[in-house]
Write a structure and sequence with these properties.
With 357 residues, this protein is α+β, with helices and mostly antiparallel strands. A five-stranded antiparallel β-sheet has the order 2-3-1-5-4, sandwiched between helices. Helix 10 crosses helix 11 and helix 10 packs antiparallel against helix 13. The radius of gyration is 30 Å and the shape is elongated.
Length: 357
């Protein structure tokens, strides 16, 4: 037990969030282990932190950290993989069995010399005065140790695979979608540039991984943005921001295309224009409204009802504009269904009657 707690301390793992997995095959990959454990919902997200060979079982003992507090009563005693023997699950220490120790409190190792007693909690009984003294010492130390604060971005989801192969293989993202996710991770994740580079490279394979390796060879200190820029140059369009802007201005609503769908198609193109420097980000809302008025050739009446021409100087954001268009589309659909129109008329009449009363 003391060894397991020492292992948690060495890996920087809170014992309340630690899980020990035994009898794991020597050649088991971390992602395979994590995949089986992530199926246990009460553990939350599970990450392998350490591996050790056990000569007694001829398998691995794996230390994992869980996003949720590990409760010995809630976890199953074992996990049965598709092949091989079951894996035994245990925890380094049952915190609920220690008086005054709450779940999630970090444990600091206490040696016999610190406690001033002989023996360990494993061989002492609750009625032993030495055991009571040891618990008191643990409690005194815990009061002085600040609880570690887990970084907010540890749960940021992984990027989906991207290889740069055309057509896009099943299970992978195309370049535009992958770049959108990668830029969001780079902008929103508060981890270091080194961690961001690692997440980008982990998602790459095939020709895309070769480009990343070339970037790293030419500049070991390249930023995450450098990697994304190189990948876009290698697999994306060679059009300049100006070319993309003119293509954006040529967009027109297709026959039968809903105005909300046309707006989303416009937004995808406008995002590329802004990223390539075709227009300034501050001009985005105004240019979006201008192009909507120019290109929505199938929805003149709806544009009048939305009063977009009068709002060009103070244009709405993309989300606000999409919300207004979707509401107007729903109202038009209801007006085209006689049964619903009668119902709405009846509701208005009832409300008018209640108002007179």
């Amino acid at each position: 037990m003391s060894f397991l707690l020492n292992w948690c301390q060495g890996e920087g793992v809170d014992p309340a969030h630690a899980l020990i997995v035994k009898s794991v095959p020597k050649d088991a990959l971390n992602k395979v282990i994590e995949g089986h454990l992530n199926a246990i919902k009460c553990l939350g997200r599970v990450k392998v932190k350490g591996r050790m060979f056990d000569p007694e079982t001829q398998g691995l003992v794996v230390l994992c950290v869980c996003s949720e507090t590990v409760n010995s009563d809630a976890i199953p005693p074992e996990v049965r993989p598709e092949e091989g023997d079951p894996w035994q699950l245990s925890i380094p220490i049952d915190l609920s069995a220690l008086p005054g120790v709450t779940s999630g409190t970090p444990i600091t190792m206490v040696t016999d010399s610190d406690a001033g007693v002989a023996g360990t909690p494993d061989t002492s009984s609750p009625s032993d005065p030495h055991f009571t003294a040891l618990l008191k010492t643990v409690g005194d130390i815990l009061e002085k140790v600040p609880r570690p604060i887990a970084p907010e971005n540890t749960a940021f989801r992984r990027l989906r695979p991207f290889s740069g192969t055309a057509p896009t293989p099943n299970g992978e993202e195309n370049l535009d979608t992958w770049l959108m996710q990668a830029r969001l991770m780079v902008d929103e994740c508060e981890c270091s540039d080194s961690e961001k580079r690692k997440r980008i490279i982990e998602s790459l394979k095939g020709p895309a991984l070769e480009i990343a390796q070339a970037v790293r060879s030419s500049d070991p200190h390249a930023t995450p943005q450098d990697y994304l820029g190189a990948l876009e140059q290698a697999f994306g369009s060679s059009e300049s921001g100006e070319d993309l802007y003119y293509a954006f201005r040529a967009l027109r609503q297709r026959s039968g295309e809903r105005l909300s769908d046309f707006l989303r198609r416009m937004e995808h193109a406008l995002t590329k224009v802004v990223f390539r420097g075709g227009v300034m980000a501050s001009q985005r809302d105004r240019i979006r409204v201008e192009q909507l008025l120019r290109g929505a050739v199938e929805s003149d009446l709806m544009l009048v009802q939305l009063r977009l021409r009068e709002r060009k100087e103070t244009p709405p954001s993309f989300l606000q504009l999409l919300k207004e268009i979707r509401e107007e589309e729903d109202q038009q659909a209801m007006r085209q269904r006689p049964g619903l129109s009668v119902t709405k008329t009846a509701v208005r009449q009832v409300r008018a009657t209640d108002g007179r009363a």
